[in-house]
Amino acid sequence: MALHGGVRPYAATFFIFTDYARPAIRLSAIMELPNIYVMTHDSIGVGEDGPTHQPIEHLASFRAMPNLCTIRPADANETAYAWRAAMMRRHGPTMLVLTRQELPVLDRSRFADTAGVLRGAYILNDESAAHPDIILIASGSELHLILEARQVLAEQNIHAREVSMLSWELFREQPRSYREEVLPPGVGMRLAVEAGALLGWHEWVGSAGDVIGITSFGASAPAGRLFQEYGFTVENVVERARRLLGK
């Protein structure tokens, strides 16, 4: 359909089932076809289905695939802009990676304009300091986690910048000036939070930064319990941020 033209085909299923679709996805990337893939149930939030249905390594593997653009939005508005970004791409497929669990919609009167999605990463809230002590980076559902952690850190007189980094590929396409505006070279203390494999994140957090991710397969339990057991809690984000800062 994509080769014929006139339509923009898309496919949708659970993210874990890209294991079956990988040959077709890879061919679309080789041929630079503008297919759109909408993949849901993106991590351990799948819960009781257990490790066979919890895609831990999949984000990292698709980020490694040439010509494919992955986007992992954090709420309904980011998802709308992610779809727009996918429709704007003409050379290569785009994969939207969505969560299972319900997520709140960010109040854009308090946070940056959602159009930042089109640039791959953007500063969500930076009102506390011109030069933050630490940069908190997240994608998808974990973005809401760093928002809560920032409030706790602020109460401890630690100024944190929040960055929504939903697409590495789109961010790499931005001018260096913009990339350094979002992630200033002078701020080495960076903490990324994502419920998936750590592979690749040190490109963004640097040698002085840290990543809260997953280094094993998932487990069968309610989603809330799993996020707690795997360290995706406000308390752990705050602790790891303080550890980076030597506090």
Question: What does the model show?
Answer:
This protein has 247 residues and is of the alpha/beta class. It has helices spanning 18-30, 58-63, 76-88, 142-155, 168-172, 176-182, 202-205, 223-229, 234-244, and strands spanning 10-14, 36-40, 69-71, 94-97, 121-125, 134-138, 160-165, 190-193, 210-212. It is built from 9 helices and 9 strands. Helix 4 (142-155) packs across helix 9 (234-244). Helix 4 (142-155) links the parallel strand 6 (134-138) and strand 7 (160-165). The protein is globular. It has a single domain (10-244), classed as Rossmann fold (3-Layer(aba) Sandwich). The mean pLDDT is 95. The chain has a 5-stranded mixed beta sheet.
Q: Provide the CATH architecture.
A: 3-Layer(aba) Sandwich
C-alpha end-to-end distance: 56 Å
Task: Give the overall pLDDT as a whole number.
Answer: 95
CATH topology: Rossmann fold
Helix content: 25-40%
Radius of gyration: 18 Å
**pLDDT < 50 runs, ≥5 residues:** none
Write out the strand line-up for the largest beta sheet, numbering strands in chain order.
Answer: 5-7-6-8-9
CATH class: Alpha Beta
Series of H and E elements: EHEHEHEEEHEHHEHEHH
List the helices and strands and how they pair.
Blueprint: E1 10-14, H1 18-30, E2 36-40, H2 58-63, E3 69-71, H3 76-88, E4 94-97, E5 121-125, E6 134-138, H4 142-155, E7 160-165, H5 168-172, H6 176-182, E8 190-193, H7 202-205, E9 210-212, H8 223-229, H9 234-244
Parallel strand pairs: 1-2, 2-4, 3-4, 6-7, 6-8, 8-9
Antiparallel strand pairs: 5-7
Helix pairs in contact: 4-9
